[in-house]
Every structure is written in C-alpha cells, then in structure tokens.
Amino acid sequence: MKQVIGARCTICGHMIAAEPGITVCPKCGGILDIEYDYDFIKSKLTKYDLMDREEQSMWRYMEFLPVEGPGTLPKLRVGMSPFYRADRMAGLLGIGTLYIKDDGINPTASLKDRASAMAVVKAEEAGKTTIACSSTGNAASSLAGNAACAGLSTFIFVPSRAPKGKVAQLMMFGAKVILVEGSYEDTFRISAEAIDRWGWYNRNAAINPYLMEGKKTVSFEIAEQLNFRMTDYVAISVGDGCTIAGVWKGFKDLYAAGFIDRLPRLISVQAEGCCPINTAAAAGTEAWTPQEENTIADSIAVGVPRNPIKAIRAIRESDGVTVNVSDEEIMEAMRLLGRNAGVFAEPAGATGTAGVKKAVELGLIEKDASVVSVVTGNGLKDVNNAIRAAGEPLSIRPDMDELVKALGM
Ligand SMILES: *Cc1c(COP(=O)(O)O)cnc(C)c1O
Ligand SMILES: [Zn+2]
Description:
Rossmann fold
C-alpha cells in the first residue's frame, strides 16, 4: 500500500504503521488519522483516468483508499449513489443552486455502508471472522449487511429506541443483536467492554480510523458528479462527527492531489435537542460538553459524540457554518424532499437539507450560493416518523359516495 504513509494521532501527533487492526493512539488514546502520499497517488491516477473507469462503486477511488487491490474487495455494491440537480427545491429553500446526493440509495440504505464496507475489508486483513459495533442503528444495519455478504459474523449493540426498520434489517442480515435499554452512550460503553473481552474486530467509528476513509468516498463522488467544479457549500447532518470529518477529508484529498481547485465550506447541521459538536464549533473551542439526546432524528441523537475533535476541526478548517434545526424543521425538510425531489429521507437524512433552509433564513449563507445537500439515510428505515411528518392517508369503505365525500370534489 504505497499510497498510505501511516496513521497519525490527532491529539499528540505520534505516527504508527497503518496495520489493519489498529485502533487508537498507543501513546495517548487519541483517534488516529490515515495519511497519504499525494505525489504517489498523482503518479497513479488522474481525473481523466477516473472518468474512463468502469467500476461503479466506492472502490472506484481505490488509489485514495487504504486497500491493497481489487482482488480483496467486497462484492456488495456500495457507493456511486444518485446525484440530482434540484431546481424546484432550490427555489423553495431560497438558494441559487441545490444538488441532492442521495446516499439512502445504498445496499442497506444509508451512507454508513461506505464505512462498513471498509470495516469488512480491514477485518479480513486483520484475520478476524467476527465484527462488532454499537450504533444508533445505521452503522449496525450496514455492518450486518456488508458482513453477511462477506461471510463474517456480527455482534451488534443498539439502543432499544432504534426504529423497527433498522432492527428488522439487522435480523434479516443474520446479526446477533443486543438491544440495550439505555442511551447511545450506555450502548457504546457495553459494546466496548464486550469487544475487549471477546477480541472481536471493532467497527466503532470513533475507535477505528479506517471507517472515515470509507465515508470520504461520498466526497469523491460528489466532486466527480460535479465534473470537479465544486459548489460553495456541502451540507451534512452530524451525530458522532465521523461523517462530516470523512466528507472533509475526501475533499482535502482531492485538493491535495490537484483534482479540484477549491474546497467547499461545510454546513454542519445538528438537531436543536442534541447539538454538542455545533455548540463547541460555534464557540470556537474543541472543548465540547455532553448533551441530552432529544430529537426524532435518532441517527444523530448523540449526546456524547465519539469523534468530536475531527468534526470540529473539519468545520473550522473549511470555514464552515453551524446550524441547529428543530424536529419540526426536520419533518418539513422530509416533506420538501419527498414532494419536490422524490427523495425519501429518514429524519437524520433530511436534517442537512433542513439546515440549508435555515442557514439561508438566518443569513448564514448567501442567497445565490450553490449547495450540495447529502441525504444520509432512507425514509423506509423509520416509517413511524415518516407518517408523523407526512400525515395519514384518507381512509374509506369501498363506496363511491364515501369517496366523493372524502375527496370533497
Ligand atoms: C450516522 C448518521 C449520520 C451522522 O454521522 P456521524 O458520523 O454520526 O456524525 C447522519 N445521518 C444518518 C442517516 C446516519 O446514519
Ligand atoms: Zn496520541
């Protein structure tokens, strides 16, 4: 893997070899970050090579990833999700140009598949046959699906509040599922103990530096789908912070390798009822404080974020914007996406879009700005909240008079 230089600690700067089983910094416990040799990458790949490439998955960008070669890669098709220019939505949100990157169209219906596909590769390289994680739901279902395809077994810890759709996915993919009656924080803690005890491969995004490397592929796709002409902003919902950190890393990689000539500013969107990362970023500090987990957007209801430092740095480095939205605003964004773009998002999936609308209203971004909003998860995962946002249908007996009355026309 000549493209990878090593893994550097984000806290103390200590550098170690990028072995497949690495977790946190052996010196200080800080989260590691994989470093690349961009001159080497440039010598292997140009953006014109990419345009000719046939691979239609996240592995299209192999030269930018910590993987050996095509022979070892998983079969499930993750990535190359649809990218739409959404003019009517742009009008409704009051901005110049809006693009929607629909990452709900992944094998297990969330952006998390990008990280889980990477986790599966790394677990196999590390010689492990069992992978475990704790998750608000989507990391779990994506790990279960990607591991199932690769023939690995999984132990999954989710808070008992996880929506039924996500739990159904876990069961269908054959995971060993443990519902934890407690918060995400409680769930994370017990999973960490179990992983230690039984020596499973750890897919917890905060511990495992490779997961962000998978997530960053969403940015490679966005750039390519924009013909490498970046928008002013990219909006994304934030929970643990790994996704926004990955998004930023992807753009920085492309910039360092000369594929794009400017970096977008990030719009970091959290729920008003749970926004520890935005609170710290807005205050210009990396010293965040835990919060309650009070929002319908279960995937980003993370009161004790596991990757706050990388996320806060991503927001700062990109000269980013932070915006917090209410559950009502999230549900409005779900309706707007559904009714004007035909895109069905789970609450956390629509949160980025809700943030774009609010950022314009608050004057945080310019009215003529161009924005990519990443939809991170599909609405079928959480049918209860979808109905809550969209309403109940008319209901009649099979009788024409009743239909006429119900329709009022
Ligand atoms: C996990 C997730 C996020 C946020 O990602 P973090 O890495 O936790 O910040 C956003 N939306 C959806 C649908 C998710 O599953
Ligand atoms: Zn360290």
